[in-house]
Amino acid sequence: MSEVKEPLLTSSLRNRTKSTHGKLDEHLMGLGLFSDKEKYKIFLTLQYHIHQDAHQLYAHPQLARFIPNLQLRNRFDKVKEDMQDLEVPLPQAVKAPLITNISAAVGALYVVEGSKLGAKYLLHYVSMIGLSDQYGAKHLGADDEGRGASWRSFQSAIDTADIDIPVAVQAAEQTFSRVFDHVRHVTG
Question: What residue spans of the chain are helical by DSSP H?
Answer without folding.
Answer: 9-30, 37-55, 61-64, 70-73, 76-85, 102-127, 147-160, 165-187
